[in-house]
Protein 1
Amino acid sequence: MNKKKVLILYGTRYGSTEGISERIASILGENEFDVLVVDLKKPPANDEYLSFDNYAGILIGTSIKIGQWTKHVKNFITKKKDALNSFKGKLGFFVSSGYAAVPEHYEKVKVEYTKDALNKLGVEKVDLFDAFGGLMDLSKTSRMSWLDKKILVMVGKQTGLETDSTKEITDLRDWIQIENFAKEFLQLL
């Protein structure tokens, strides 16, 4: 018997969305799904992964920085919106954002940066969507620029996010929430 296939596409800046994608892929794999994970910044040279009819489900994830998705995810969705709208399987979408870790901002981030943003790009079909916290790396070895760190500290103070520069990384992702999202997607398949 052939395993059902799931395609996970993501865009990441500092690794948070990549980690979420890998965890979701692991859960799907443990449940007998064949999962292909693709970083849209460096997709495979072979376009075979774009044959959406081969998949029971597609999940797309992106990080959020200053209210914006990664350009690779935005460009992909803009180019593939017709194929996504006509996709017969289940489509899920998630974002990784520091704001999603703040309870009073969670619902706004969940709807505005997922379903509403997809609709603005012409994608009308989304079966499941969510928003997860991200990674805050203020260390000297961080991939974040000096200015990004300053902005993050300022926003952190305004929203109550932990911005401790003595910590290597502050992980704001709720792994139980992420696992529940993966399991909910499984139920749709």
Protein 2
Amino acid sequence: LEISKDEFMFKCCDSSHHRHPNGKHQELREFLSEHSSVPLDMHQFPHSQEMLLMKFLILRQFDYAFHYKRVRLQAPLTGVPIQPGIFKGTYGTHGVELIQIEYIDNCAKLRASKLSGDPNVPSGQVTFEVVLQYSMVLTVQQQASITALDAIEVQAADIPCNSV
């Protein structure tokens, strides 16, 4: 056990107590169902679950060594579209991921950093940034479905966000 003010780590001495009682296959099935929004019996299993299988195998390689680090959250802000904080989302074949959203550059940008990493974007790295200089005003119909959102032709507006 190692301890500091903002992080600690430990390793289990007897990992046999952490193994699934019904074996590795059941442990994998439960891991996949917890981390995926795709049913396990789909014919696309080798393609849609390949990254999750990699994640499962990598986590098992750590042999139950744990590292915890304090997450510092930005204080609530006024006049922002989404409050800073921790969000859960589905990242395709990577499964469920946690990201931390914060505002930078005097709230001119929103930055999302991965709390739970994957092979493409490790934990602590930026997964996306949004420039908030200009806003988009969407109609109710444009917000009705993902298909409607995808159909929007994005154009730079001349109206700064803080004047909408």
Protein 3
Amino acid sequence: MTTSESTEQFFTDLLNNQPVMYGPDPDINAEYRLRPRTDREDEALAAITDPADLAVGLSRVEAVLQSSIEMMQQISASAAAKWGDLIVGIYTKEGDFAVATSSGVNMFSATTSSVPKFIARYWADEPTVGLAEGDVFYHNDANYGGTHNPDHTLIIPLFWKGEHVAWIGAIIHEGENGAAIDQGGFSVRATTKYGEGIRIPPMKIGENYIVRRDVVNLFQNQVRDPMLWLTDVRSKLASARAVERRLHDFMAERSPELLIATMRSVLETTETEVRRRIAAWPDGVYRATHFADNTLMEERLFKLSVEMDKRGDKLTIRTKGSSPSIDRALNAQAHFTRAIVGNLFMNFLYGDLPRTAGFIAALDYDLEPGSIVTANSEQPSSLSLLTMFSLSSALHQAATKAMFAVPDVAKPMAPWYPQVPTLQYGGLTQHMQMYANVSTEMNAAGGGALHDRDGEHAAGPIFAPVSDWGEMEGREAELPLLGLWRRIPADNHGFGKFRGGASVEWAYMLYGSQMFGFGITSMGGRFPVTGGMFGGYGGSCTPLIRISLPAAWRPCGSGCSTAARA
């Protein structure tokens, strides 16, 4: 080939065959049904002669995953990961999230199937990337799948004797994401996606189980806490490899067919069982509406509407009438909206079933485009969880109305407290280390009242009921602050015979650094974040209060004048 022919071929490929960028795939993100069985899955299921083997297989896989997540909690740097904002799971080769840990953030199992599907479609056969045993992939951009950008996914392919049989994923909420203005992961003041910090599409960051140090250095160069990123990339990889080693042992002891059959079986049986239980609900249309009152930049009322249309074993979720998307980071993508529906079913309705993508596959969705709960990929969304938590209150109310008439099954409960009035912080610590993160007070949210008793005090967040909120001594050791108190205060409830559980009250004082700042991320100052049920009152509003001390009262030296209270 001559030089001119080579040049012509180069420009032909550039213009016709190679996209400028591999952006989010709308077809992949729109998938929520389980992918059809493959021939390999049919062969694996046919090889299982005793159905009890599938139960044994699922038990083994769940034990492996639970052991790995407990290890990851111990070795991670993220405060959220230490106390429950994480998950470990296994995906089918086709990319459906098959089994997740019972603890952690269950809705991750309903949002991250897009990631391995994207890798398989775009990178597996790409000559400059490829897919092989020992490859390490990373992702955090919610437009490609997932919840919001602070939630980071590390994923590796699982091979057995040269055959690609599954994917293994580890996901952690990272408290610092490099946003240009706001520390701590939540980009409060972002008005476009370009102000939300680092956004990583699914990409290969390592081979032969070794992460490329230059790639991690690129990530670290964009964030305030490089040690956090280095530690947690390694902790996620260590956890995924622990799962891989034990699943290799399982396949050597039993067979790869049993693992493949177990994954497919649990997906299909979960979907079937959710549909069977829904069939017991009375047919009808059940509606609920919730309002959020703040964008964290200004007071602004926006509406979240839910309609559940139940016919036979088919339940359709609609969001018609919800407010349009806005130029604030509160927008959520449609796949996150489907995941928050799955979160309701996993955590509040059918918690006895395995956490799989089968939950959202069992339902139907009619989500109005262009709304704040179906935003496009150009909208900022790092605070989408606040909108989704408000939507969860409406979903909870509608589902409770639907299940109220189901005999011997339903025990109606008002919505849990769904917001995150937690400490957000960043700066130079007393150890002379740059640090930014969010604290875990949100993990002590109050549970909703039941028809015959009060709700649980400090029960847990709606997204991770099996979590904790840490120790005061740990915060004081890591951060330049003093914990003044944290407690469940007396009379911290609303009206009614049975009341929702009281959450916690806490106060911190900055101490030991003059270059450290506090913030808080929540709603509910004007409109209750939880609604009452069947004539009951909603939760009380919690307005933001700022107290400024006169200059003469402000301490100096190693102390500081800033306190935060919620």
